[in-house]
Amino acid sequence: MPTADRATAAYLGLAIGDALGATVEFMLPREIAAKYGVHDTLRGGGWLHLKPGQVTDDTTMSLALGNSIIEQDKVDALAAAHAFDAWMRAKPVDIGNTVRRNLLHFRKTGNPEAPYSDNDAGNGAAMRVLPVALATFGQTAEAVRVACRAQAHITHHCVASDAACETLAFMVQDALRGKDKNHLLHKHAHPLAAQFPEFRFRAIKQSTNPSGYVAHTVQAVFQSFFDTDDFRDCLIDVVNRGGDADTTGAIAGMLAGALYGLEAIPGIWLKTLNAETRHACESQARHLIRLSGCVPQ
Predict the structure, then answer these.
(1) Fewest beta carbons within 10 Å, which of 81, 101, 142, 265?
(2) What does pTM read for this prediction?
């Protein structure tokens, strides 16, 4: 499968997972079951009252970051911070508290790196790491880490957030190379949990109603990703856990898209995804992966 197709599937997977999960964000699994049975449709609604196929900050921040990378031909913290600030000024449909606070800090100081805080261990940087993973594909591991932190520290300057961002970026990149799920588990997921016990996901009860804490998000995503066998089942499993479902859906979607490819994405989900969003994701994915220099023009 061509790398560019996997990259496109990852970006579309992020947006579809976001749109699917947004409907049931902040709901409990029993509430989801009572209202929908199994939630498996891009139906919109939810607490944000979205249209079917409409996305939230997970996708729109990723696109803002991707645009800044394309304009600069690299991951640049200051350019990304300006892009995020412009995104916030445009009054997005949703914005996390940590993102808002640290973008206001950037607006006041001009410094694209927020002060370090262990309390900023939310999932807001991890949810938008995909453009970095694509743009740095084929670069050294250290270069990938530096780029991940450059974008993350604008809003989430925290070691737990860094660990999640870097692991997810490396997982996406190996999936783009055609590595299988077992490789992703043993090369990336297990080492993350070994180094940072808060990310353990095999030795804990199934993560339901995951919060915005990045470790809870990653636990839920990894449980769904590694315990299902296709794109559709992975996304349905993770969003029906409720909680911060737009973000768990987005992150699971980017991993599953990179692993399973375009043909695995249900046609009805692609058709329902907002057309402007779909076009932006497809265009950015191909541009960013070409920018890496490792994929033919």
Answers:
(1) 142
(2) 0.96
